[in-house]
Amino acid sequence: MTAALLPPVHQFKLGSFTVTVVRDGLSIIEKPWETFGANQQPETVQKMLSDNFLPTDRFVNTYAPAIIDTGSDLVVVDTGFGKPGRERGNGLLLAGLKAAGYAPEQVTVVALTHLHGDHIGGMVEDGAPAFPNARYVAGRKEYDFWSDKAREGTAAEGGHKLVLSNVTPFAEKTTFIGEGDQVVAGMTAMLATGHTPGHMVFHVESDGKQLVMTGDTANHYILSLQNPDWEVRFDMDKAQAAQSRRRVFDMIATDRIAFLGFHMPFPAVGFVEKNGSGFRYVPKSYQFDL
Ligand SMILES: [Zn+2]
Which residues lie at CB < 5 A from ion ligand 1? Predict the structure, then answer.
């Protein structure tokens, strides 16, 4: 692996926990308005991008799985694209985990915010479990939706097949959870549906320090946070996703706590404050270093 291909890895302390964020990869995508402003005029979206010093015709989407070392558990939250993504330069979670000094065999828990391909692609590696000693934690509602045969012949068929190959084989080692359930000590799940039918966020707390892992609740740090009601192409239930976005980020803004958004600009950790009808994003700097 050349230096240029080494995965960026970012590490910080959250109380007595160590959080390692890995950039699994990135994609460059055309026409940002089609993804983040599906119910807006393209010019409206382009103006907001240019007002915020961003290119108007393309955007960069990044992927940020994370590893939480609680001292008693090593928890991987979401697994990136895995091997199928590697030909496009993605799928770097395992390399990042090793760069941070961990071995895949040390991972005790793999927790999933939801079951889209960029979150479950890294569950298997060459047909074998990527984290051979781990147990798994996934949303009951989310798993029931994607594993259901009723998805055949619908827009969700691709996702259904991927869940059958990447999640179902681990069902016996999976704890299926719902609202308020614990992932491990210090990590609690909350439903934030809309992006997918059982999408969850994880609230992490150690020694009074808090981090909410928001998964795909909001996926553009300007467009979706400043305009929580703008429709996002990848949100399956757009109204419900907007409602979850408002509820989760209202809580994060009110409590003034950090969040890690899977598609936020790497290292994907920041804060929000209420601003007009939306939120202003403030990237993390040295808040956890002092
Ligand atoms: Zn995603």
Answer: 118, 216
Q: How close is the Cα of 266 to the center of ligand 1, in Å?
A: 14
φ/ψ of 88, rounded to 5, equals -100, 10
CA of residue 149 to ligand 1 center, whole Å: 23
Q: Is the per-residue pLDDT at 1 higher than 70?
A: no
Q: Return the axis-axis angle of helices 140-147 and 157-166, rounded to nearest 10°.
A: 110
Show the tokens assigned to 266: 């790497």
List the one residue out of 250, 185, 239, 184 whose CA is nearest residue 214: 250
Q: pLDDT tens across 57-116, in order?
A: 999 999 999 999 999 999 999 999 999 999 988 999 999 999 999 999 999 999 999 999
Task: State in Å: Cα 290 to ligand 1 middle.
Answer: 31
If you measure from the C-alpha of residue 190 to the centroid of ligand 1, how many angstroms do you get, rounded to a whole number?
17
CB distance 18 to 10 below 8 Å: no
* Distance from the alpha carbon of residue 113 to the mean position of ligand 1, in angstroms: 9
> In the prediction, which pLDDT does 287 show?
95
CATH class, 2-283 region: alpha beta
Quick check: helix, strand or coil at residue 18? strand
CA of 119 to the centre of ligand 1 (A): 6
Please tell me the pTM assigned to this model: 0.96
Domain boundaries, the chain: 2-283
Question: Length of the chain in residues, anyone?
Answer: 290
